[in-house]
Description:
- By secondary structure, the protein is mainly beta.
- The protein contains four helices and 13 strands.
Amino acid sequence: KVVTALTPPCIQRTHTYTGKIFPRATRCIHNSVLPSDSSKEEMEFTRPNFSGKWTMDLAASEPLGPILRAVGLNRVLVGVINRLPVTQEITTNVDVGCVCVQVSTPLQTSEFQILTNGTETGVPGPKGSVTLATSRWVGKGPSSKLETRQPTEEVSTGNEEGGAISDPRELETSVMWFITSRSLHDAGRTLWEECSVERNGVAVSGASACRVLRRV
C-alpha cells in the first residue's frame, strides 16, 4: 500500500486508508517565491542535506515502545513496529525549502513532503493517520536540526461552542504532539531521527527515542 500525504498546490492523490485527497509528493514542487542565488548558496552551505537512500540500524536505534504506548497503541502493534526494517529515500529541493521523504517497510510505503518555512503539510503520524505538520530549522550551520511537529490525531480548528480557535497557544496546549528532529552525523553518513511526545505543552517523561539510519 502506498500512502501519500501532502498539501496544495501539488497534484492530488487519494489517501489509501481514509479516502481523503492529498497532493502527490514525488516531484517535491511547491509554488512559492524562490530565494535569490546568494540566499540559495547560503542555505546549501549552512544547512544539512538529507538527500539519499537510508536504512534503519535497528541495533543502534532506541525502541519506539515508550512513544507508541504514550500515544495509545497496544503492545502487539508496538512489538511489530519495533521490529520492522525501515528504508527511506529522501530528496531535498533547496530552491523551495522542500524535503520529500519516501518511507518503506514490509507492510507499506508512504510518501510525504515537509516544508522548512513552517507551511503545513500532511505527514503520517505514529498512529498511522495523516495529520498536518509544521517544520522549521533549529540551530545554525551543518549541525542544525529540522524539527517537525504534528498532533498525534486530527485536530478540529473549532472549540466546543463551534467557534474558531483564535489563539494558537490554545491549540498548542490542548493536544498531544509528536516531534521528530532530523540531523546528520558521522560526516553525513548517519541520519538521526530524535522522536518525542508532548502533552499540554510538556514533554511526556520517558516518551522519547533516537532512531539511527545509515546511508546506503
